[in-house]
Amino acid sequence: MRPITSLLVLSLCAGSALAQTPSQIPGKIGQRAKNAAGAAAAAAGEAAVEAAIPAAPVVAARPAAEPSGNPIQRGVGRLAQQIAQTVGGQQDAVDGFKRIAVLPFDAIDDTARELKLGRISSELLGSRLALDPAILQVERSRLDALVEELERQKKDVAKGAASVGRLLGASSVVLGSVSTVGSDFVVAARVVDTRTGRILTAADQNFPRAGMVALSKDVIEVKSKGGAAARSAALPGWGQLYNGDTARGVTYLALFGGLAAGAITSAVLGKTAADEYNENRADTVDRREDANAHFERTNWMLAGLGAVWLVSVVDAYVTGVDAETINLDLAPAVGGGATAGLSGTF
Predict the structure, then answer these.
(1) Is 345 helix (H, G, I), strand (E, B) or coil?
(2) Which residues does residue 185 pair with via DSSP β-bridges, in sequence order?
(3) Nearest-angstrom CA–CA distance, 83 and 67
(4) How many Å apart are CA 79 and CA 338, to the nearest integer?
(5) Digits of tens for pLDDT over the chain (346 positions)?
């Protein structure tokens, strides 16, 4: 009986288990399916959120700004950028400024010397460096005076560049040269540390021959003693202004203008007094003396005009020079507003 009873119990248990639905028996397989479905739903939600957020724009790195303008402007701009970066990396500074001196460049060959490209190139580079607010250049008058003195003593300015810079109070000196290479002119520049004499950097740029020749013709002014005298002969003071002596020129102009105005005024007053005297009225008898006084004053002023004219002509000739002057204002296509007032005499 016990075996039969045990079999009956086992049969009932098996039947009960088979009567249960799958939902009543979740089991490990059903649980895994639910977990997988939940994970998929979460991933879909995250994807939807990411799609709703706009992507950040990709900003490309900007290269260094290329100098604008014609080929000469761009070439000078590139040289100035390299020099400014080198000078800016130096440690010493006065009141936050880097003081530099741009010496006249050497013209290596006959063509460059004939066109005065050495001085023109250094003037152009100096004018571009003047745009950098962190760079302070040595005054042109001081630089020219020292260079002229060294040349008078037959000393090589380039070899003594470091000592020249120290005398001028500059921390760096810019030297350079211009030479003809094929159909171009090559301007080479180097920066020298005035404390150690070490070359900090060197750079060069090619410039089109046609552009440099045209620039030379535009910016070089030929001045002479005769030209100054002729101008003062036409108008006292003009020759002095031509020589660059503004104060003296304005003085002569003011004297000549004042005397001329005084002479004209006195002549008019004398003529008026003489006309009144010639009316032969009793109340105009004294006008004869007035007329004579005005005419005498007119004569003195005319004599003064002649003296001012003569002195102005002689002074313009004596103080004038036979030289060629660089005036970058005459080449607006190259210099523009950045070069206003820059000029040099050689």
Answers:
(1) strand
(2) 180, 207
(3) 14
(4) 16
(5) 444 444 333 344 444 444 444 444 444 444 544 454 454 444 444 444 344 434 434 333 344 455 556 888 889 999 999 888 888 766 555 555 788 999 889 999 999 999 999 999 998 999 899 888 888 888 877 887 877 777 777 666 666 778 888 888 888 899 999 999 998 999 999 999 888 888 899 999 999 999 999 999 888 888 899 999 999 999 999 999 999 899 999 999 999 999 999 999 999 999 999 999 898 888 888 889 999 999 999 999 999 999 999 999 999 999 998 888 787 776 655 544 333 334 444 4
User: What distance in Å separates the CA atoms of residue 79 and residue 81, rounded to the nearest whole number?
Assistant: 5
d(CA 69, CA 133): 21
The answer to whether the pTM exceeds 0.70 is no
Q: Residue 135's closest CA among 104, 95, 164, 105?
A: 95
Tokens matching residue 277 = 């005297």
Sign of CA dihedral 63, 68, 74, 76: negative
Tokens matching residue 137: 């250049």
Lookup result for tokens 């040269």: 177
Domain ranges of the chain: 71-219, 225-320
Q: Which CATH number fits domain 71-219: 3.90.1150.10, 3.40.50.10610, 3.40.50.2000, 3.20.20.80?
A: 3.40.50.10610
Beta bridge partners of 208: 184
Strands of the chain (E only): list them.
Answer: 98-102, 106-107, 135-137, 172-181, 184-193, 199-208, 220-223, 323-327, 343-345
Helix (H, G, I), strand (E, B) or coil at 170: coil
